[in-house]
Amino acid sequence: MATLTEQFMQALRETEDRRDPTPLVELFAKDCTLRNLTTHEWSGKEGAREFWTRYLENFETIRSEFFHHADDGRTGIMEWEATGRLPGGHDIAYRGSSVIEHDGQKVGAFRTYYDSAAFVKPAAEGQEQG
């Protein structure tokens, strides 16, 4: 049987492919929390839906590939690289790690850490960076 971390990775793939956060949201507990590099924290099922909806809105297309994961029955860790296209047509590739805390059935907490520099728009050609 797949661990909750493996189920999470599959649900993320479905979410990215369908551009619908429902497969991921279904894995979260009603009192869950979610955090990324911002200072904002999302909570509850509606918070999980908002978090994953905002995630999808950052991209025209996105695909996460996992190159390592582990799950000890309470905590899951996933290392990944995401590639895709930002609105406006710029390609993006960035790496990160995500952590879930869970009870084997539902995700109670989600935290993700990634290379945010990948989202900085390059300076216009011919314009000096300073």
Account of the 3D structure:
It contains three helices and six strands, in the order ααββαββββ. With 130 residues, it is of the alpha+beta class. It has one domain: Roll (Nuclear Transport Factor 2, Chain: A). It has a six-stranded mixed sheet, with helices on one face. Strand 4 and strand 5 form a beta hairpin. The protein is globular, with a radius of gyration of 16 Å.
Labels describing this entry:
3 helices, 130 residues, Nuclear Transport Factor 2, Chain: A, alpha+beta, disordered C terminus, 41% strand
Topology diagram in text:
Elements: H1 4-18, H2 22-25, E1 28-35, E2 41-43, H3 44-57, E3 61-71, E4 75-85, E5 91-102, E6 107-114
Parallel strand pairs: 1-6
Antiparallel strand pairs: 1-2, 3-4, 4-5, 5-6
The portion of residues assigned to helices is 25-40%
User: Low-confidence parts, pLDDT < 50 over ≥5 residues?
Assistant: 125-130
The proportion of strand residues reads 35-45%
Report how far apart the termini are: 53 Å
| Total individual domains | 1
Report the C-alpha radius of gyration, rounded.
Answer: 16 Å
Q: Summarize the biggest pleated sheet.
A: 6 strands, mixed
Backbone shape: globular
* Gross CATH architecture: Roll
Quick structural gist:
This protein has helices spanning about 5-20, 20-25, 45-55; strands at about 30-35, 40-45, 60-70, 75-85, 90-100, 105-115. It is α+β, with helices and mostly antiparallel strands and about 130 residues long. It has a single domain, classed as Nuclear Transport Factor 2, Chain: A (Roll).
